[in-house]
């Protein structure tokens, strides 16, 4: 890992030198009469200058995303919000705590929500806890069922989708940085202060205060503290808990590469492992005539409002087919879709219904293309 001891010594020396000069005020070593009283200032003297506290700096995003040296950590995320949603006053919070270890390999996450305007179909789903220990996933959705245990496929682990601490990080390229590092969460870290101009590439708000601390040794985010006020209805922001108002977000990383063990609660360990029936999620028919599938599509799973199917068409062919058919049947794209070389995700609307389309490679190593459609 990079060491910045020499740089810190140099910067510290400059700060102390500037500080000493400002105290001395350019004092003359000659004790003779200079013709001025101690409170007078000669015309060629300059007032002492204060040492700058900040400097313009570039944020090293590559180091933030490089987790090869992070073998264990704990993190906590809190978002509080206060404002209006569709004209109604709302306020509440979302909290999340994460633990990850590599030896032994284990993960733990707990999440709680208060005042969040959830989908009515998910009413009561305001708590979630998750453990991944060895080859088993343990989940508690805060419902009557309590803990359930599921087998985990290490090649396609559901935890990979949300257990990476970088998922909480979205920073601009440049910001103002304090000249000397600070001790935050037990780690020496560079303190960046981000203003509205720095954040133009990420979004526009009426008012924002943003601070982030990045470890001197390791380059990972130690802490983030953002307060944003204004409108949160822009399409690129996605669904937000409020349309107008103030959101405050704090994210902390601590116990990085510390020696700790993730302990599975007895009630979770006692959960009977769920055995997947191969036909449990298989079969079904897709009969939405206004959302046709390619002729060769093989349906893996279908139910009202949802279908998962595979086709032997190429990615470009499958995507072109679906987009053409949706447009021909009156579906209108909403917002900007997410696209890469071989993946697509887009939202569509029609007569009060919303449709989500995902086209990407199938997960069975067959070389086929997967088409996932959800309608609500």
Could you give the topology of this structure?
Blueprint lengths: L4 H20 L29 E5 L2 H5 L6 E14 L2 E14 L4 E9 L12 E7 L2 E5 L6 E5 L22 E5 L3 E3 L2 E8 L12 E9 L5 E11 L12 E11 L11 H4 L28 E6 L2 E6 L3 H14 L3 E8 L4 E7 L2 E9 L7 E7 L1
Antiparallel strand pairs: 1-8, 2-3, 2-13, 3-4, 4-5, 5-6, 6-7, 8-10, 9-10, 10-11, 11-12, 12-13, 14-15, 15-19, 16-17, 17-18, 18-19
Describe the protein:
The protein is mainly beta. It folds into 2 domains: 61-254, no CATH class; 298-375, no CATH class. The chain is built from 4 helices and 19 strands. The strands form 2 sheets. Strands 1, 2, 3, 4, 5, 6, 7, 8, 9, 10, 11, 12 and 13 form a 13-stranded antiparallel beta sheet that branches. The longest helix is centred in the first third of the chain and has 20 residues, at 5-24. It is globular, with a radius of gyration of 28 Å.
Write a short abstract of this structure.
By secondary structure, the protein is mainly β. It has four helices and 19 strands.
Task: List key phrases describing it.
2 domains, mainly beta, 19 strands, 40% strand, 376 residues, six-stranded antiparallel sheet
- If helices are DSSP runs of H or I spanning 4 or more residues, what is the number of helices? 4
β-strand amount? 35-45%
> What global shape is seen?
globular
Question: Pairing-aware structural class of the strands and helices?
Answer: mainly beta
In helices, the fraction of residues equals 10-25%
Q: Average pLDDT, to the nearest integer?
A: 75
Overall number of domains: 2
The biggest beta sheet, please?
A: 13 strands, antiparallel
Terminal CA distance reads 49 Å
Sequence stretches where pLDDT stays below 50 over 5 or more residues: 1-43, 118-124, 157-162, 276-281
Q: Which series of helices and strands comes N to C?
A: HEHEEEEEEEEEEEEHEEHEEEE
Question: What integer value in Å does the Rg equal?
Answer: 28 Å
Number of strands: 19
């Amino acid at each position: 890992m990079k060491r910045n001891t020499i740089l810190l010594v140099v910067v510290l020396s400059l700060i102390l030198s500037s500080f000493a000069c400002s105290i001395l005020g350019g004092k003359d070593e000659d004790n003779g009469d200079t013709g001025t009283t101690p409170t007078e200032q000669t015309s060629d003297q300059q007032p002492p200058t204060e040492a700058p506290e900040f400097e313009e700096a570039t944020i090293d995003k590559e180091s933030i995303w490089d987790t090869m040296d992070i073998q264990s950590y704990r993190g906590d995320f809190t978002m509080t919000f206060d404002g209006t949603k569709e004209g109604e006053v709302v306020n509440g919070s979302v909290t999340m705590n994460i633990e990850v270890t590599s030896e032994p390999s284990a993960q733990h996450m707990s999440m709680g929500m208060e005042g969040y305007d959830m989908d009515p179909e998910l009413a009561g789903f305001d708590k979630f806890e998750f453990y991944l220990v060895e080859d088993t996933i343990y989940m508690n959705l805060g419902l009557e069922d309590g803990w359930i245990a599921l087998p985990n496929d290490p090649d396609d682990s559901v935890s990979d989708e949300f257990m990476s601490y970088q998922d909480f990080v979205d920073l601009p390229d440049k910001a103002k940085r304090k000249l000397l590092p600070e001790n935050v969460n037990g780690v020496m870290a560079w303190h960046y202060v981000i203003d509205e101009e720095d954040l133009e590439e990420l979004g526009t708000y009426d008012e924002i205060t943003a601070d982030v601390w990045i470890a001197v040794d390791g380059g990972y985010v130690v802490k983030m503290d953002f307060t944003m006020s204004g409108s949160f209805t822009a399409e690129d922001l996605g669904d937000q808990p409020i349309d107008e108002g103030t959101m405050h977000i704090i994210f902390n990383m601590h116990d990085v590469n510390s020696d700790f063990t993730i302990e599975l609660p007895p009630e979770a360990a006692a959960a009977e492992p769920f055995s997947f029936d191969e036909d449990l999620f298989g079969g079904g028919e897709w009969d939405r005539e206004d959302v046709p599938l390619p002729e060769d599509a093989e349906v893996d799973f279908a139910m009202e409002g949802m279908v998962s199917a595979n086709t032997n068409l190429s990615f470009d062919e499958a995507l072109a087919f679906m987009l053409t058919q949706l447009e021909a049947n009156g579906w209108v794209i909403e917002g900007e879709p997410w696209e890469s070389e071989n993946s697509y995700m887009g939202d569509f609307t029609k007569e009060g219904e919303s449709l989500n389309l995902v086209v990407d490679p199938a997960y069975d190593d067959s070389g086929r293309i997967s088409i996932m459609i959800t309608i609500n």
